[in-house]
């Protein structure tokens, strides 16, 4: 079974967890794409939900599929957020932000009663860090911020690019992709990064996911609950 089919199965499975009347966070990424399409079909069939998107890309897709959206400022909390991840460790700590939406993703996750991650089996790791850790930084003096991050033991830090130049996040910031290779203490690193002047947010999501729904190449889907 291809990766895309596995992602589709994870997205379809996650949609079964959404109940009528919920206000939900709608994540960003290739696996969530399938969740959004499945959710749209359910709303056509009569499911009543309201969504809060985690990125401009997600908002555009959801609106095109007639999923009702609301601003996070207009709700007290979210019942549930469904989102993807770039890496998931056995404690359900995550690296997120490969798509560039980590800041809004973390804000939405923090506003949610429950966060559920959907992914294919390739995202499961024993230790976080092989995937470059995205760190969102303000554009002013970003090289100084980069130097401070390097002092935490990261020697390879790349300013994210896109086809026509530097990648700019939805909120007008740069993203530094930091190659730590292995992060032995994710909670400590998260704190150290966010103490650096110029860092807006980082892609470590620690103790935020309650459950991970993982699809495998053999067609099976497995739930992992936070230990």
UniProtKB/TrEMBL annotation:
Record: residues binding substrate: 28-31, 83-86, 96-99, 123
InterPro entries: NagB/RpiA_transferase-like (IPR037171), Ribose5P_isomerase_typA_subgr (IPR020672), Ribose5P_isomerase_type_A (IPR004788)
Membership in a protein family: Belongs to the ribose 5-phosphate isomerase family.
Gene that encodes the chain: rpiA
EC numbers, comma separated: 5.3.1.6
GO cellular component, one term: cytosol
Keywords: Isomerase
Function according to Swiss-Prot or TrEMBL: Catalyzes the reversible conversion of ribose-5-phosphate to ribulose 5-phosphate.
Entry-linked SUPFAM superfamilies: D-ribose-5-phosphate isomerase (RpiA), lid domain, NagB/RpiA/CoA transferase-like
Subunit structure, interactors included: Homodimer.
Reactions performed catalytically: aldehydo-D-ribose 5-phosphate = D-ribulose 5-phosphate
The protein, known as: Ribose-5-phosphate isomerase A
Source organism phylogeny: Bacteria, Pseudomonadati, Bacteroidota, Chitinophagia, Chitinophagales
The keyword Cell membrane is annotated on this UniProt entry: no
Pfam families named in the record: Rib_5-P_isom_A
Active-site residues, as the UniProt record annotates them: 105
Functional pathway: Carbohydrate degradation; pentose phosphate pathway; D-ribose 5-phosphate from D-ribulose 5-phosphate (non-oxidative stage): step 1/1
GO biological process: D-ribose metabolic process; pentose-phosphate shunt, non-oxidative branch
Entries under CDD domains matching the protein: RPI_A (cd01398)
Native species: Panacibacter microcysteis
PANTHER family linked: RIBOSE-5-PHOSPHATE ISOMERASE
Top-rank taxon: Bacteria
MF terms in GO: ribose-5-phosphate isomerase activity
The keyword Kinase belongs to this UniProt entry's keyword annotation: no
